[in-house]
Write a structure and sequence with these properties.
Length: 95
């Protein structure tokens, strides 16, 4: 796998695309951090899998996020909301 910058990609796009279509993989980095990968269409199709598998993975990820949200809400729901607290303070001060 070859590492290139966005500037390298702009300068030699045609040659890089030819190499990628022949199976070469490119890691595109910006500020020494990976931001994207350029692979052949065949490699990309293998990474994606079939649509049903992608859909199942996406739904499973959403289920995990929902469970995480419920867990976070349960963990942090220890008292009244800030709005309720302010109202209770006002009522106490007015009495």
């Amino acid at each position: 796998m070859r590492t290139i910058s966005p500037l390298d990609l702009r300068r030699a796009l045609g040659a890089i695309l030819d190499e990628a279509s022949a199976g070469e993989r490119f890691l595109i980095v910006r500020d020494h951090r990976p931001v994207a990968m350029l692979v052949s269409v065949e490699d990309g199709a293998r990474l994606d899998g079939d649509p049903d598998t992608r859909r199942r993975r996406s739904l499973a990820a959403l289920d995990r996020l929902e469970a995480l949200g419920r867990e976070q809400r349960a963990r942090h729901a220890v008292g009244p909301s800030s709005v309720t607290s302010v109202r209770l303070d006002r009522d106490r001060d007015d009495a």
